[in-house]
Amino acid sequence: MRLLLILLLFTSSAWAEKYDLATYSASLDYAQVTNVLATQQADGSWCFGTSVRHNDQGWEHYADGWEVLDFNGKPLSFRLLAHPHVNEQPFTRGQCDIEIPSEVSQVIVRAKCNKHGYGGKIFVVDLRKN
Predict the structure, then answer these.
(1) Contact 21, 122 (CB under 8 A)
(2) How buried is residue 18: exposed, middle or buried, by Cβ count under 10 Å (0-12/13-18/19+)?
(3) What is the DSSP code (8-state) at residue 55?
(4) Distance, CA of 4 to CA of 107 (rounded, Å)
(5) What CATH number does the domain containing 109 carry?
(6) Per-residue pLDDT tens over the stretch 47-63
């Protein structure tokens, strides 16, 4: 019985680490990823051009970053957005030299804001199509 309980706990925690693709808020209070262009460079690294939409209101509330994750939720890269984009919506910012393991064929790109964190629409990128 104890072994079964340990296995159930292990299985539950392993599933909990998987990234939830279906739960998000469509409110522009959360940063929404609207598009991603991913291109592989000659050295095998990747460049991501990520478009984000958010109701930036100035320094007190703005989209302040986006990240690339694998499907287990492991961060692969983070792009800091250093200032508000009040009059530029949606906006696109790039990040290059992103190392993605060769066995990873799909990644998740999500954005965050400095007030609400993550929680907006994400974007799934199939690296086999790029």
Answers:
(1) yes
(2) exposed
(3) -
(4) 33
(5) 2.60.40.730
(6) 999 999 999 999 999 99
